[in-house]
Specification:
binds iron/sulfur cluster, alpha/beta, TIM Barrel, 8-stranded mixed sheet, globular
């Protein structure tokens, strides 16, 4: 039996996948997105250690609220850093008839072993993936997150090849991702995929900046404002091919 490091749970999540969902935020992330609002999840071995059954028992207390579409979403942090645990959790969830959704930024993805076989095993029990594209440009992605995007885009191509349903999410940050050329390149990439059910724009906000301060870290976007409603609409039009 595996133990997961859990940052927190949210009982009635409505923005991380279909319907009403029980959200599990996992510890651990190797990326350092400049806008991260969960910087307190970065450390892997922190939070609360829980088993899959403990989490599912807790989640099922709210099952009557889930309706037809709801279920559980595992988010983070980066859940793929606790691959064995999430696989056990989702396998047990499917046995209980629970819809499973994985919210990932894809950074740990690799076609090498042992990751690739384990990832494929996890996908057997995953109904939907929410995948963040942080930046379509590799250099800009590095500047924004500390990592390149090649393996992340490769993960999306792989998920397309196996026809696994995906929602793409993209944080719109003035001066960084809110740029028509980048947005069109992102759309071009999404157009090359066969499995995308939905594309969502998440407007940048700085509500997690206080966590950086609490961790003694420098929040470098403190002068960046949220995008205007017009720019959010513009990005939605571009990414959804409605220009
Ligand atoms: S991938 Fe998510 S948790 Fe990790 S640094 Fe980026 S925003 Fe934060």
């Amino acid at each position: 039996m595996n133990t997961g490091y859990i940052h927190s749970t949210e009982t009635f999540g409505s923005v991380d996948g279909p319907g009403v969902r029980f959200i599990i935020f996992m510890q651990g992330c190797a990326m350092r997105c400049r806008y991260c609002h969960n910087a307190d999840t970065w450390k892997l071995k922190a939070g609360k250690a829980m088993t899959a059954d403990e989490l599912l028992d807790k989640a099922e207390r709210y099952r009557s609220y889930w309706g037809e579409d709801g279920g559980i979403t595992v988010s983070g942090g980066e859940p793929l850093l606790q691959l064995d645990f999430v696989t056990e959790l989702f396998k047990k969830a499917k046995k209980r008839g629970i819809n499973t959704c994985l919210d990932t930024a894809g950074q740990p993805f690799a076609r090498g072993e042992p990751f690739f076989s384990k990832f494929n095993e996890l996908l057997k029990y995953t109904d939907l993936l929410l995948v963040d594209i942080k930046h379509i440009d590799d250099n800009e992605h590095r500047a924004l997150t500390g990592h390149g995007n090649q393996n992340i885009l490769d993960m999306l191509r792989f998920l397309s090849d196996i026809k696994k349903p995906v929602w793409i999410r993209h944080v719109l940050v003035p001066g960084i991702t809110d740029n028509d050329e980048y947005l069109r390149r992102t759309r071009g990439f999404i157009d090359s995929l066969q499995n995308v059910e939905r594309v969502e724009i998440l407007p940048y906000h700085s509500l997690g900046a206080y966590k950086w301060a609490a961790l003694g870290l420098d929040y470098t976007l403190e002068n960046t404002q949220p995008p205007t409603a017009d720019r959010v609409k513009n990005a939605e039009m571009i990414l959804n091919n409605k220009e």
